Amino acid sequence: MLQDHFKTRLPKMKISNETKVGTITAVAITLLVLGFNFLKGKTLFGHSRTLYAKYTNVQGLANSNPVMINGLQVGTVFSITTDKNMKVILVDMNITKDVNIPTNSIAYIKPNPLGTTSIEIRLGDANSYIPKNDTVATEASAGIFTEAMQKINPVLAQVTHAVGSIDSVLGNISRVIDPDAKNNIQSTLLNLNKVTANLIESSASLNTLLNTQTGALAKTMTNLSSFTDNLAKNNDKITQVMSNLDKTTANLSKLDLEKTLNVLNGTIADLKGSISKLNGTSGTAGLLLNDTKLYNNLTATANKLNLLLDDLKTNPKRYISFSVFGKKYKGTELTVPLPDTVNAPYIKQK
After folding, report:
1. Which of 62, 120, 169, 204 is most buried as measured by Cβ atoms within 10 A of its Cβ?
2. Degrees, nearest 5: CA angle 342-346-350
3. Distances (CA, A) of 145 to 113, 114, 229, 315
4. 45-141 maps to CATH 2.40.30
């Protein structure tokens, strides 16, 4: 009932054919523009940015051609424009991937005769990056055929040089084949024959040297073999000698050399002390060696003993008396040595 009521109250809205045609036309135009931009490389939904590059020769580059970095497509060519002078061609690149391109990067055109020409961006090493709507530095590409010719030209240059060298060799050969040169060649051949003869003699001498029976080398090897045989026969003795040497070195290593040296140093120090005491006058031995009083006393005693002996020899009755009647000897005693003892080793008393 309620639905019937509203049906009777609300009038029916009719859409005219002109409206339908206009709407369809607008949608078609929108789809056409979006599809055209999509075909040109513009992304419909997503992140993209525009970069520019300037060239003097695009080498067949066209819209929608790929933009590559390290073999990966990061965008497409959106448009190519130029002025009437055709000196500078501006290429509009649409970068669809979010990549960082350093400011010192270089974009160059890479032609491909069997495929599509592309733009290759060679990344730099700068720490700053190119912002959107900015220009990338470019580098002119020589093209495939120019590069091929650049590789072929060095080869052609080498071939030309080789041909010139061959020509020089042929000229030298032509100059060699003259009468004087023939004589020189004959002389050279004679000298070569002499050299070969000397080589033959040298080889004979070498064979004699290397003869296994009478050669000097064979004798040397025999002597060396005998020497090694003697070493092998005396191996036990050599081993014993080495063992004794090891024992000797072991005994030497066991000696307490440091203690012995310390004792020797102490002995030397004591000897120095004794010698210093002998040189001084603080001890008995020092006084005996260094004090002149003892020498003078000994000299005086020797002098008195000489005088006594001389007096005893001169006046024996003074010391030995055999008188029966007790007569006393009245001779004078000596006060100086006798003449025969003047050169005796003593000091004359005053």
Report:
1. 120
2. 80
3. 10, 13, 80, 154
4. yes
At residue 93, the 3 state secondary structure works out as strand
d(CA 205, CA 201): 6
DSSP calls for 180-227 = HHHHHHHHHHHHHHHHHHHHHHHHHHHHHHT-TTT-HHHHHHHHHHHH
Residue ranges of E strands in the chain:
49-55, 66-69, 72-82, 89-95, 106-110, 118-122, 134-138
User: How far is it, in rounded angstroms, from Cα 95 to Cα 83?
Assistant: 24
Q: pLDDT of 198-245, one tens digit each?
A: 888 887 777 777 776 666 777 788 888 888 888 888 888 888 888 888
Q: What are the residue ranges of helices labelled H in 119-143? A: none
Contact indicator for 93, 37 with CB cutoff of 8 Å? no
Phi, psi of 94 (to 5 degrees): -105, 105
Give tens-digit pLDDT for 164-189: 777 676 666 666 566 666 677 778 88
